[in-house]
Automatic annotation (TrEMBL):
Keyword Manganese: no
Protein name per its UniProtKB record: Aminotransferase class I/II-fold pyridoxal phosphate-dependent enzyme
SUPFAM superfamilies reported in the protein's UniProt record: PLP-dependent transferases
GO MF annotation: an example: L-aspartate:2-oxoglutarate aminotransferase activity
Pfam families hit by this protein: Asp_aminotransf
Superkingdom classification of source: Bacteria
Keyword list, A-Z: Aminotransferase, Transferase
């Protein structure tokens, strides 16, 4: 305990200022898409079919861009829409539209139900939970198993409770644990019996091509699995180029069954005269084809891999021998999830803050911001430099050692 206190005092005295909260691309990653900013140029602004991209129209997005992302997002191009700049907006809109207008297969609007609940695999993405909280949708947490959500629990919940209308899923390299859903999990999600006829999976494939190792993990296509199981309208699939080209000015996609696409189109017709096709054309010219996306993601990987390696290296050397923490080693995505002893996560985050290291608030990855075991900390190493990641992680290790020693002594 004394040793842990002393090293923490030394850490504080250094007056560091580091940040591991931001799951966003580093400036070097954004530079990879530098050429995008000078495309399409003033000369040729026509899409493949001759459409002038500067003008109104093209409600569902440029077909050639939809072709490029059809494979990575596992949605046929004709059922994949290329829309605005953020997939979160599309997820939010689909939830709101389901509240306000009957989805295919439904009997009434979700807003007319006495209660609406969503299954939320935990830990998960805080902004998904934020959408539910904003609209009074109750969240039912379900643990992740390493192969996706615990399907025994999910199947029982959705079969018995007609108020469960939806479920958030990040099926590949999930935020924050790096979870990849197994084929069996995908099949069970597609085939499970649901008490609500208008139940929907919100399949957020945000990290579809964001590999961190030489193994490019593939998952089953949820749309194919749903169609095969006789539930063709069960899933909405989302994705974007936010962490491929430029975060905030990329292109977002949503795909689904023909019936769901028709339902979304009705809304879009009222919402817009068409998306930003100039930006979409820019993306087409930049990538050229799906292989262009794959090659580009390799360049991201070259920048991200050493940052993740720095996290593991420090955790292993500083905490490994003590057996007081566990962490994920994701094969893709943007995060490492660190589990400290139960009841210690808030204290670690507090100690780190006092020492000048910003960490994501404990509990952020859980509905209502509450981690029942107060043990999970989300680490985001993409933005700082490799040396900053190493420095910040050494500091985190000092804080974990002190929090664990304090708890032991209490
Ligand atoms: N979905 C997940 C799982 C994310 O982690 C993020 C960003 O961190 C997003 C969606 C945001 O995507 P977009 O920029 O397309 O809104």
């Amino acid at each position: 305990m004394e040793a842990a206190r002393k090293e923490y005092a030394e850490l504080r005295a250094r007056g560091l200022s580091l940040d591991l909260t931001r799951g966003k691309p580093s400036p070097e990653q954004l530079d990879l898409a530098g050429d995008l900013l000078s495309l399409p140029g003033g000369g040729d602004v026509k899409a493949a079919d001759g459409t002038d991209t500067r003008n109104y129209g093209g409600l569902l997005g440029l077909p050639e861009l939809r072709e490029i992302f059809a494979g990575p997002l596992q949605v046929p191009a004709g059922q994949l829409l290329a829309l605005g700049n953020a997939s979160l907006t599309l997820m939010h809109d689909n939830v709101v539209q389901a509240l306000l207008s009957v989805v295919p297969g439904g009997e009434r609007r979700w807003a007319d139900e006495p209660r609406v609940r969503f299954v939320c695999p935990v830990p998960g993405y805080d902004r998904h939970f934020g959408v539910c909280e904003r609209y009074g949708i109750d969240m039912v947490p379900v643990p992740l198993t390493g192969e996706g959500p615990d399907m025994d629990v999910v199947e029982e919940l959705v079969a018995s409770d007609p108020t469960i209308k939806g479920m958030w899923c990040v099926p590949k390299y999930s935020n924050p644990t790096g979870e990849v859903y197994s084929d069996e999990t995908v099949r069970r999600l597609a085939a499970m019996r649901t008490a609500a006829p208008d139940f929907r999976l919100f399949w957020d494939n945000a990290y579809a091509v964001h590999h961190l190792t030489g193994e490019r993990v593939e998952i089953l296509s949820i749309l194919d699995a749903c169609a095969e199981a006789g539930n063709p309208d069960r899933a909405f699939v989302f994705g974007s180029t936010s962490k491929i080209t430029t975060a905030g000015s990329g292109v977002a996609f949503v795909g689904s069954s023909p019936a769901n696409v028709a339902w979304m189109k009705e809304r879009l017709l009222k919402q817009t005269i068409g998306p930003d096709k100039v930006n979409q054309l820019r993306h087409v010219r930049f990538f050229r084809d799906t292989d262009g996306v794959t090659a580009h993601m390799e360049r991201h990987r070259a920048l991200l891999e050493p940052r993740f390696a720095a996290v593991y290296e420090v955790l292993e050397s500083e905490l490994g021998p003590l057996g007081i923490a566990e962490w994920t080693r994701p094969k893709g995505g943007y995060f490492v999830s660190l589990d400290v002893p139960d009841g210690c996560a808030s204290e670690v985050v507090r100690l780190a803050k006092e020492a000048g290291i910003a960490l994501t608030p404990a509990g952020a990855a859980f509905p209502y911001g509450k981690d029942p075991r107060d043990r999970e900390i989300r680490l985001a190493p993409s933005f700082p430099s490799v040396e900053e990641v190493r420095e910040a992680m050494r500091a985190v290790a000092v804080c974990v050692r002190l929090a664990a020693a304090e708890q032991e002594a209490a």
